[in-house]
Amino acid sequence: MARKFFGTDGIRGKANSFPITPQMALQVGIAAGIAFRNGGHRHRVVIGKDTRLSGYMIEPALTAGFTAAGVDVFLLGPMPTPAVAMLTRSLRADLGVMISASHNPYEDNGIKLFGPDGYKLSDEMEAKIEELIEEDLSGRLAKSADLGRAKRIDGARERYVEFAKRTLPKTLDLSGLRIVIDSANGAAYKVAPEALWELGAEVISIGDSPDGLNINRDVGSTSLEALRRKVHEVRADIGIALDGDADRVILVDECGEIVDGDQLMAVVAASWAEDGKLSKPGIVATIMSNLGLERYLGSLGLSLARTKVGDRYVVEHMRQHGYNVGGEQSGHLILSDFSTTGDGLVSALQILAVVRKTGKPVSEVCRRFEPVPQILKNVRFSSGRPLESASVQSAIADGEARLKGGGRLVIRPSGTEPLIRVMAEGDDHALVESVVDDIVGALKQVAA
């Protein structure tokens, strides 16, 4: 279903440029408020945000829209995306909103919506809201006496910290572990260090000084050098890197080696299978996950179901088919026993539980398989449809023929940025690299 404003992860763009403008946020608030009105009770929405400067612009505009639609607004301030999803359910809200552009730079921002069950909206509901955005809703606004009210929620941070801690067994703590936590100068800059410290760990915190402009800048799950340096400097047992809205996590082991989402899924899948906690003998990942993960799971008698890229599609498949573990190579882990969306902090805690249970170092716990050579390159474009070019199509066809039987080729436009992502994997590294370079070269000629 084609969507006009919503992408793979809500509405996203450059702040103060369409569609991330105060006018649009106002319209989204009105439209979503009307779409979720159901019955005569006082309706309520929970709104959280990350630490971007533009959050100060978008939050009050959304608030005005929702109150105009007769919806009470509970403002959380800076909070992780999974906390917003959890609190939407906990506070019995009719919907939740997260203001964030996740791992993107501060110039971007976005609006993510959650239903009362804490799950991201379906394509159909997003389409309904888009239709309402473009309608004249002046006749459907709340009457003067029925306007919504807005208030800050005290104790939201503490509620989420307690929720995260309760995902671990009562008998397990993190005492004796030295942990570096990188919060990407983002939404988890307070809750993540607090949760780890309260669980008994020695905590060294970086990426915890947001100024509105430095979210994800040289820190966080997409920029790991600062974390690797700090792990080495303080001789930590593990480094944990979240992204701007803390719905994804990447780890660094005690040797400074990076542990991506595929390895994390392997750890959780093997541990939960051993403990009888997997709801089905397998997990869900996307087309981008490494072939090595699929082979490792197969050796354990577990399957790997693949979806389109985007954690929402992983979640949809999990819900439809009864899986309780899924995720993405980029670090989104969806553990549906605990959360309705990716939760970087909770995912990290589950890995730490395995470290504690085995008594082994992170480098040993989190190296479950040897990844098949995989190369991913991005090509930025300014306009047009580069993938429809005859020369690009020819390069793709040639690459598929060369990899046939010995690897995979995945080419897709990003759902959040003007990028074409070219990924190939296979046992022959030189062949994989050659295939990717040829397609990237063809794309750059067209995109120039």
Radius of gyration: 22 Å
Spatial sequence of strands, sheet with the most strands: 1-2-6-5-3-4-7
Number of strands: 19
Low-confidence stretches: none
Helical residues, percent:
25-40%
Care to describe what's here?
By secondary structure, the protein is an alpha/beta fold. The protein has 14 helices and 19 strands. It has helices at residues 22-35, 55-68, 81-90, 123-133, 156-165, 191-198, 225-234, 261-274, 291-299, 311-321, 344-358, 362-365, 390-403, 429-447, and strands spanning 6-7, 10-14, 43-49, 71-78, 95-99, 108-114, 150-152, 178-182, 202-206, 238-242, 249-253, 258-259, 282-286, 303-307, 325-327, 333-335, 374-380, 407-413, 419-426. Helix 1 crosses helix 4 (123-133) and helix 8 (261-274) packs across helix 11. The longest helix is centred in the last third of the chain and has 19 residues, at 429-447. It is globular and about 70 Å long. The mean pLDDT is 96.
In short:
With 448 residues, the chain is of the alpha/beta class. Helices cover 36% and strands 22% of the residues. It has helices spanning 22-35, 55-68, 81-90, 123-133, 156-165, 191-198, 225-234, 261-274, 291-299, 311-321, 344-358, 362-365, 390-403, 429-447; strands at 6-7, 10-14, 43-49, 71-78, 95-99, 108-114, 150-152, 178-182, 202-206, 238-242, 249-253, 258-259, 282-286, 303-307, 325-327, 333-335, 374-380, 407-413, 419-426.
